[in-house]
Amino acid sequence: VVSDVGGFPEVVENNISGFIVKSKNSEAAATAIEQLILDKNLRLTMGTAGREKVLQNYNWTNNVNLVIDI
């Protein structure tokens, strides 16, 4: 669960690898957290999606190759 400020929305895909809530909206954050607490399958699905995105986009080999290509 992240807010919609800064770079967080670039890392988390809403409803796929996590939830993006409006900044300063504690009610929305609490609702998103509650959904994850109550739904084990949702936690596993989002966790897996988040891990895959990080492995694909945020690893040293890919980042070095991107810099080399520039």
Q: What does this protein look like?
A:
Helix content is 64%, strand content 6%. By secondary structure, the chain is mainly α. The chain has a two-stranded parallel ribbon. The radius of gyration is 14 Å and the shape is flat. The mean pLDDT is 94.
Distance between the termini: 33 Å
Strand content: 5-15%
* Average pLDDT figure: 94
Give the helix/strand class. mainly alpha
Helix count from the secondary structure assignment: 4
Number of DSSP strand runs: 2
Describe the main β-sheet briefly: 2 strands, parallel
Q: Order of SSEs, N→C? A: EHEHHH
- What share of residues is helical? 55-70%
Indicate the overall shape. Answer: flat
Strand order of the largest sheet: 1-2
Instruction: Give the assembly state of these chains.
Output: single chain
Could you outline the blueprint of secondary structure elements for this entry?
Elements lengths: L1 E2 L4 H4 L8 E2 L4 H13 L1 H18 L2 H10 L1
Parallel strand pairs: 1-2
Short note summarizing the structure:
This protein is mainly alpha-helical and 70 residues long.
Which descriptors apply to this entry?
single chain; 70 residues; mainly alpha; two-stranded parallel ribbon; 2 strands; flat
